[in-house]
Design goal:
nine-stranded antiparallel sheet; alpha+beta; single chain
């Protein structure tokens, strides 16, 4: 498959992301596929119970398939236990190996959940990504006691050139966003200086990113990061897809389908 075809796939994904942007505003950019509220399992068979029982017990599914409910924005500032998340990440890599049949070299007990580390884990089997893109980025802020959110979405609908669009919100006590108007010439392909000027209005306490990567064999990886660490990963290889959500929380949810 030619590189252009992968980029066209990315274009389609970017359009879908733009259409679903209203839903993702509520969580700062996180969008759930249908994940059942059941214990995480591989292929749904009892035969997998012995693969990593400790992992299945730890990763009791807490994510349902409905639109995410509101959360108190201030709770987002809680510190993440990176040591525990690193253990979850290794266990997720092991289940991903079983699910999509890609070697992840996850023989150690702890790996920091970063983009570089997951690319290194699959590199022996897949090589380096042939295309990477950033679909969106969000900065959650506090400005004079008020919660605000900066969001940049990348539009791939133009085959020749992508475009970035800036959105600025204030959030009420329930996390409901209200758009803050900006000058029209500032929201399309905003300069880094303009973004920085908005960030200086207050304290940025969380950064989230939605990224994807394509590999030469047609595999697709979709990643959500929070403050530089992977919170959500979805990896598709042929007919099989593995997804693990909430790796930076105390109740991650993983599923093979």
């Amino acid at each position: 498959m030619k590189l252009k075809n992968y980029f066209q796939i990315g274009i389609g994904a970017g359009v879908l992301i733009a259409l679903s942007g209203t839903v993702m505003w509520y969580r700062g950019g996180y969008s759930n596929p249908a994940v059942a509220s059941t214990d995480s399992a591989l292929n749904g068979s009892d035969a997998d119970e012995g693969s990593d029982v400790r992992f299945d017990e730890d990763l009791e599914a807490k994510v349902d398939a409905r639109t995410p409910t509101m959360t108190d924005p201030k709770k987002r500032a809680e510190a993440t236990d990176i040591a525990k998340a690193s253990q979850f990440f290794v266990q997720a890599l092991r289940q991903m190996t079983e699910c999509v049949k890609v070697n992840t070299n996850s023989s150690v007990d702890s790996i920091e959940p970063t983009v570089d580390n997951i690319f290194s884990a699959v590199k022996p089997d897949l090589g380096d990504p042939i295309l990477k893109s950033q679909d969106w980025i969000v900065w959650n802020m506090r400005v004079s006691g008020e919660e605000r959110r900066l969001r940049i979405e990348t539009d791939y609908s133009d085959n020749d050139k992508s475009a970035r669009h800036l959105l600025y919100f204030k959030l009420d006590a329930q996390g409901n966003p209200t758009l803050i108007p900006l000058a029209e010439d500032s929201v399309r392909n905003p300069s880094e200086a303009f973004i920085a000027s908005l960030q200086k209005d207050g304290e940025v306490y969380e950064e989230e990113k939605g990224e994807r990567a394509y590999f030469d064999g047609g595999q697709e990886m979709v990643i959500t990061q929070k403050n530089g660490h992977i919170d959500d990963i979805e990896f598709a290889n042929g007919p099989k897809t593995f997804r693990c959500a909430g790796m930076l929380t105390t109740a991650p949810s993983c599923k093979c389908y």
